Amino acid sequence: MSKQALKNALLKSKERRLEDPVTMKAQKSKNQDKQDVRLQTAVRKGLTNTAIPTTTEKPPSQQPRNRHQTGVRKASKNYLIPTITGKLPSQQLKAAQSRTGGLAKKSEQMSKKLAGSKFRWINERLYTVTSEEAAEMFRNDPELFEVYHAGFRTQTESWPVNPLDVIIGQLQSKLRSQKMEGKLTVADMGCGEAMLARTLIEGEDKNSSLKERVQVHSFDLHAANEYIQACDIAHVPLKDGSVDVVVFCLSLMGVNTSEFLREAARILKSGGELKIAEVSSRFTGVETFVDAVCGCGFQLIKKDHSAKQQVQQTPDERMVFTMFDFKRSAGGNDTGAFVKKRKRSGSDADGQGNIKQQRISGTIADGILLKPCLYKKR
C-alpha cells in the first residue's frame, strides 16, 4: 500500500471515531475536566467570587464514561458550572479603580484645557476683527458660539459681581416705578444668551414677571435661543427713535465699536438711555471714551467705577468694571462738534488737525479708544 493510500485510510478511520457517539462523549468529558481544573485554580487564587458547588451528583469529569455501565449520561439541571466574573481582590480592585479614576481625571483636565484654548482664540478674534467678519465666522461654524459662551460662563463663575445683574436690577426698579408710563422698550446689543430678556420677561418666579410692561429686543451674531435675533449690531432691524433703553454689557467688541454707538443713537428716542458696562483695563482714557460717546449724540449722566465691582482674575491682577449711563441728546447724531472739539496736532492727526482713524491694540479708534480684553493662558 502506498504512503498516500495509508494516509487516507488513517484519516477516514479518525473521522469514523470522531463521529462515534461514545468517542464524542469521551472528548467532551475530557474538555470538561480541563475546564474544572482551570476553575478550581481560579478559586484558589481568588480570581472568582463563585465557589465550585457541592452536590450529591458527581460532576461530569467523575462520572463513569462507559455507556454499557450507566448508559449515556444526560446533563444534570442541578449541576452548576462556576464562572469567572472578573472580580478582583480588594487591594487589586482599589488599585484598578485608582488607575481608572486617574485616567478619567486626566482626560477631563485635557478636555477643559482644549475648551479653554478654543475660548481664548474665539475671544481674541472677536476683539480684533470687524463685527461683519465675526458674524461670518459664526455663520460658517455656529458651534463656536456655544464654545465661546461656555468659556465665558466659566469666567463669570469667579466674579462676585456681574455687571449684567446690576443693569437688570436697574431696569427692574424702573419697571416697578409708579412714574413709568406705557411699555418700556429695551435693545440688548450683543446679548450673549439673552439673560436680560429671560430675566425681565420670565422673571425669577411667576409672580415677578414684568413681561406686560417691557419689550426686549435681543441681538447677537448667533441666535442661541428664541429670544435672540441674529444680526450685526452695527445694523439692527429697528426703526429710528423706537427704543427707550440700549444696553452694551461687555459687548463693545471688534474694531468698529463707534458704528455700534452710532446705531444706538439712531434707534434711541430723544432722551432715551444708553447703558454701557466695560472692563476698566480696556480704556486708554475714560474721559477720552466719554468724549467719544458724547460725540455720537449722547450726554453723560452717571459714571460708576466702584471698587465693589472688582473681580479677582489672577493673584496679581484685578478685573474692574466701569459702568456708564448716557442720555440721548436732542441734537441728533451729529459728530461734527466732537471732531471739532478734539482737534489736535501730532502723530494721531492729519494735516488739518482732525483725528485720523488708527488701529490701537487691534481696535480702530475714530474717537472710541478701547483695547481688546484678552484672557491669559492658565
Briefly characterize the structure:
The chain is of the alpha/beta class. It has helices at 3-19, 21-44, 67-70, 90-128, 131-140, 143-156, 163-176, 195-202, 257-267, 286-294, 336-341, and strands spanning 184-189, 214-220, 228-230, 243-249, 268-279, 298-304, 310-314, 317-328, 359-360, 363-364. The N and C termini lie far apart (86 Å).
Give the arrangement of secondary structure elements.
Blueprint: H1 3-19, H2 21-44, H3 67-70, H4 90-128, H5 131-140, H6 143-156, H7 163-176, E1 184-189, H8 195-202, E2 214-220, E3 228-230, E4 243-249, H9 257-267, E5 268-279, H10 286-294, E6 298-304, E7 310-314, E8 317-328, H11 336-341, E9 359-360, E10 363-364
Helix pairs in contact: 4-6, 7-8
The termini sit apart by 86 Å
Q: How many β strands by DSSP? A: 10
Shape designation:
elongated
Number of contiguous helices: 11
List the helices and strands in order.
HHHHHHHEHEEEHEHEEEHEE
* Beta-strand content: 15-25%
pLDDT under 50 segments (min length 5)?
48-57, 67-85, 307-317, 333-367
Overall pLDDT level: 74
